[in-house]
């Protein structure tokens, strides 16, 4: 059953640059990667799916609701309810502890007080950070900061998890660990996972790849690859 449908999207960066995106559908619980050359608009497409940007034309539908037609406040509500986002640079508040960073995310989704603190501590502990709750980002390794960002993204139990270049700041060994953690977390929670990547390591881990960018005339706009 289709959970997310992206249809005929275009987005304009200023008067000069217009981006056109492939149309595709994603089923509930599916995991896929958006790939393509630098500047093709992969992160822009992820932002459009998250409701952080609004397309110039085309449609994004999630669970039957046309997200691209919503007002800014409507897209904010959609994101708070249904979307978890792990940014490439994590976007953690530097003066806040790991626990407080996750609490900020829960607050945006409407969860506060003792219940929120319990949920934040639980998710961080599940991701191996139970002993690091009071540490600030500066006191954490890159991998630990990424896990805090993941905890913040999933603590409100979203239906859709988005991650931008999840292995960009990690060496190969830590990249493998981070990717497994991301995929395993999505699978355990039963959420749909879409990542942006140019890393062959990440591409090899996904059974479905969607190519974003210029498409040759003899190729389909969506390149779906089944990997052995």
UniProtKB/TrEMBL annotation:
A Pfam family of this chain: ABC_tran
Keyword Nucleotide-binding: yes
Domain ABC transporter, first and last residues per copy: 4-228
Key words of the record: ATP-binding, Nucleotide-binding, Transport
GO terms, molecular function: ATP binding; ATP hydrolysis activity; transmembrane transporter activity
Keyword Oxidoreductase carried by entry: no
Protein name: ABC transporter ATP-binding protein
Gene Ontology CC: one annotated term: plasma membrane
């Amino acid at each position: 059953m289709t959970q997310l449908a992206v249809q005929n999207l275009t987005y304009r960066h200023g008067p000069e640059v217009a981006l056109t995106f492939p149309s595709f559908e994603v089923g509930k619980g599916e995991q896929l990667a958006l790939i393509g050359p630098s500047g093709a608009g992969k992160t822009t497409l992820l932002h459009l799916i998250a409701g952080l940007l609004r397309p110039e034309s085309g449609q994004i539908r999630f669970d039957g609701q046309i997200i691209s037609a919503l007002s800014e406040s409507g897209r904010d509500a959609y994101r708070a309810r249904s979307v978890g986002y792990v940014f490439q640079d994590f976007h953690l508040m530097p003066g806040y502890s790991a626990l407080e960073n996750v609490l900020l995310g829960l607050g945006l989704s409407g969860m506060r007080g003792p219940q929120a603190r319990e949920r934040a501590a639980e998710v961080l502990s599940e991701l191996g950070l139970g002993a690091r709750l009071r540490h600030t980002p500066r006191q954490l390794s890159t991998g630990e900061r990424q896990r805090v960002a993941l905890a913040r993204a999933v603590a409100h139990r979203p239906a859709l998890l988005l991650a931008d270049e999840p292995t960009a700041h990690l060496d190969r060994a830590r990249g493998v660990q981070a990717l497994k953690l991301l995929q395993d977390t999505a699978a355990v929670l039963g959420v749909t996972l879409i990542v942006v990547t140019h890393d062959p390591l990440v591409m090899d881990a996904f059974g479905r790849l969607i190519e974003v960018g210029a498409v040759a005339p003899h190729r389909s706009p969506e390149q779906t690859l089944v990997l052995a």
